[in-house]
Amino acid sequence: MSAPKTRQCKPRVLITGAAGALAKQVIERIRKTCDLVAVDARIQVPLGDDIPSYCLDFNHRNFEDLFRRYQFDGVIHLGRIRSSQLTRMRRYNANVLGTQKLLDLSHKYNIRRIVVLSTFHVYGAMAYNPALINESAPMKSAGLSADLIDSVELENLANIYLWRFPELNIAILRPCNIVGPSVSNTMSTLLSSQRAPVLAGFSPMMQFIHIDDMADAIVLAYQKPVRGIFNVASDDWVAYQRALELCGCTRIPVPSVPPVLPRFLMRALRMRSFPAYLMDFFKYPVIIDGRAFAEEFGFSPKRPLKEIFRFYRDNKTPL
Fold this sequence. Notes:
Layout: E1 12-16, H1 21-30, E2 35-40, E3 53-55, H2 63-70, E4 74-77, H3 88-108, E5 113-117, H4 141-144, H5 149-164, E6 170-175, E7 177-179, H6 186-192, E8 195-199, E9 205-206, E10 208-210, H7 211-223, E11 228-232, E12 238-239, H8 240-246, E13 250-254, H9 260-269, H10 291-297, H11 305-314
Parallel strand pairs: 1-2, 1-4, 2-3, 4-5, 5-6, 6-11, 7-10, 8-13
Antiparallel strand pairs: 9-12
Helix pairs in contact: 1-7, 3-5
């Protein structure tokens, strides 16, 4: 048994993935009401004298020292590594084994609230997806792409701990496409480009959530210790090619024939890596139902699609 926590004036929260734009937004929202400790496996992030920051792999034995030293009350796990960032094996070690270590330590040290950031990609993009996908739908993506296995296994782990250790109060969030200022994912890169490729004959419906709204959603989820899995999305969606048009992008039709297409996209966008698994998400709609989260946490996005698209229209990245 670990020693009981001493009473604190503010809850002490561990935030992972601190180098990401979303984590920085969350930190700014709760730094006055919580004592924060930031961790990122890639770099040490300077966050001021009031927030200790560490560059540390979750699988390193020194990671447990943070739990001993700070006696956390909660964990906000935003440290999922995207498929474009590391090799498959390193990503598996970080996302799956690292998350297991995080959850094991959370149980060992009596953490009372955990928020885990997942992704709507776990549902998989298929021609036969329902019009609205709710949280009970199966995670099909692991069977469609090896690049999403670690994302699905991360969720499976969190789900196991959610039911096995209810005292951890785990909430798993599956957001739609997160976009906006400072976001560096593939979708944001496409919307900010002057020229964007589209699959000839395809224009699936898509959902977008502004990074500000997603940060608000994470804070709401942390503050209300409700267990479960929740989609996070607005109740508005738009066809992908229409979104590009509203963002001021010149659309470049390309044939949907892999593996030519991923290589073309990499050259056209000057991207170091374009995840091949995303091809199906530019063919088939994956529209998630965010009503359960909205009703449980009183969440309503403040940034409409027109504001999101106006930002990208006014901030084009030259190629």
